[in-house]
Structures are given as structure tokens and as C-alpha cells.
Protein: F-box domain-containing protein
Amino acid sequence: MFTTNEVLPEDLIIQILLWLPVVSLLRFKCVCKSWCALINGQNFINKHLLHNQTTSNKNRNARFLLIQRQKSSNDHVFSKLQYESLEILSTQAVPSPYFGIPKHIEINIVSSINGLVCLDLNAGNTDIVLWNPATNETKVLPKSGISYPQGRALTRDVGFGFDFKTNDYKVVKLLEIFDPDSEYCIDDINYFYAAEVYCLSTGSWRTVSTSAPRYFIDCCYYRTYTKGMFSWSASIRDDLDFFPGILSFDMSNEVFLTTTLPDGDLEDPNGTWRIFFVLNELVSLVTFGKDRERLENCFYIWSLLEFGVKESWTKLFTIGPLMGIEKPLGFWKNESLFLRNNEGQLLLYDSLAQKITNLQVDGRPMQMITYVESLISLKGGNDLEEHGNS
Structure:
């Protein structure tokens, strides 16, 4: 009796399997022990991810992950959308351990790299979980356990990225720590700033040797990741005052950079909001008016060419004015923009045709990210090949 390997050479089997989606590969692990060992092997996992990230395959294998509130129950759910067609592939409850959490607590998508998604549970003392939506594997990060002499540390925000030097996945946590001897005061209380990093390869937290600049994080939604740099919308303090900008963390060198926002289109007597996304692998800034009494908003899009250099901000284009739009949610191809309107519907604005399409998604959209499905495991990350742009 012939085995599969006797009929087809292993190299050919591998080339065929590389074209298959993760859901099929998970089923094919049951074919035989040799296939299970092959698909579970780190070498095949790396090859499969790199195959999905090639220029010709990237959009075909990419997905949008949309977190939304169901209209009927107000529960959090995740929907997967095919990148090219925007077809809804599936809708599921939030992964364990977030299933059944109180409705008033927010779940935020931090970022996604190589098919791994980082979520934080905004419930005072932030809980963090890593999740692979394709394999449904989850990993709840342990509490830090790092003590400070002052004994009082508050988590301000988190980030998730990839270290190209060590081929490892990292979660960075920004901390505000009470310090009775500090000269900097908030409401007559002294603080200093620190950061901790969790490495997937070691499964533990450690402190970052470089100190974090003084800052105020604007909002946990306004953060993004690209090319090994995680960035937050923040107000950065200099010697005299705070200035609007972004606070960025280099995942490989573990240093902070600050970048002042560009001049122009940022001042509005009715209030201007700003959100950061990734467009063409660059941190991109979207500013827009946020006056609910007005029906029209204009959206101004900028891209940052070099971290830490204010002059490298480049204004790309302006969208609008548009009526009844509440906020942007991210970019699609050809610089199209996902929007949420005042009724909580998901829209797509085609900037070339200047046309708005209702995507008919059932639920109030909260956040969207792109990701490429992968077999990457949450058991460890230090033996991974060099990749990490998705």
C-alpha cells in the first residue's frame, strides 16, 4: 500500500500546502502523523507566512478584522472581511477569556503582526491577551510583578510590535509611577514615567532601560504600528509646555521618539480630532472636525516620512466635506477610507470616484485592522524567521 509521500515528493507536497488557507491546514493535520508534524513545524509555518505576504498573494490572503457592538444585545463581536471583496467571512464572539464580560467595558485592538492580534481590556487595570484569529489560540499575558520603590504604578497604555533584531514579538506597557521626590506634579502628586516590555519568547516582563518622555496619551484608540515602530497620539511635554504629537517606541532598540504634529488643518474653533492609521506602510494622520451640531466634516490626511522629524510630515489629500460622518476607521486600497456615520453604520468612501457605499454590516463598528492569517503559535517567538510588517 502506497503512502502519500510515496506518491508525491515531500517538496511538492509542501509547495501545494503553502497555497492553502489556515483553516484547511488545521484540518489536514489529521491526515497522518507526518502531515501533522510538517504543518506544526516552525520551518513550514515561516514559509506559509512568507508565501502569504508576497506581493502577489498579500491582498488575496489579507483580512480585515472588525470589532463591533451588536445592535440587539450590545455584545462585542468580531467579524472577518475578505480584503479584496469586503465580503463578511464570519462573525464570532470575542475570544476567551473575554467572552461574557460586562457590556460597559471596552475591548480595544492594539495592533496585529503576522496574524497575531493584541487586545486590551480597558477595565482600570488593563488586561492584555494575544490572539491568533485563524487558529483561535489565545494567550493571556501574566501580570508584571515588577515592583517600584514608590509602590504605585498606573498603566497608561500598551503597544504590540515585532523586534526584527531578535525575531520576537513584544508588548510594551507605558507606566505612570508615583514619585514623592519628582519635580513634575499632576494635581499636586509627583510622577515619573517608565515602560515595561513583555517578550513572547521568554513569557515574562522586564523594565526598559531608557526612560519615557513626559506625555499625556490622548486616547487608546489613537495608536498604530508599522515597520517595527509603535506610535500613540500624545501630548508631549518640553521644558515649558505640552505640544500635540506622537510618542513612538522602537521595538528593536527599545527607545522612544517624539514627533510634533504638522502645522495647518489642526486648529478648529469647534474642536479638531485626530486619529492615526497606516497607509502605504507609513504612519498617517487623519484630522477632522468633531462638532455634532454640524453635519459636515472635512478629513485631512498626512503621512510621516521619518520618525522624530516634524518637517517630514507630508499632506496627501483632503476628503469632504461629508455629511453625517462621525469618525474614520481606516484605509483600504486606492486610498479609500472606512467611515462610521452618525447612525453607527460602516461606510466606504472612494476618494477617486467620490462615492460612499454602505457596507451593510450588522452592528456598530468600533475598530478595524488588517491582518494576514497565519499558523504562528503563541507558545514562543525567538525562533521565527525575519518578518513582521503585517
About this structure: The two ends are 44 Å apart (CA to CA). The chain has a mean pLDDT of 81. The first strand starts at residue 62 and ends at 69.
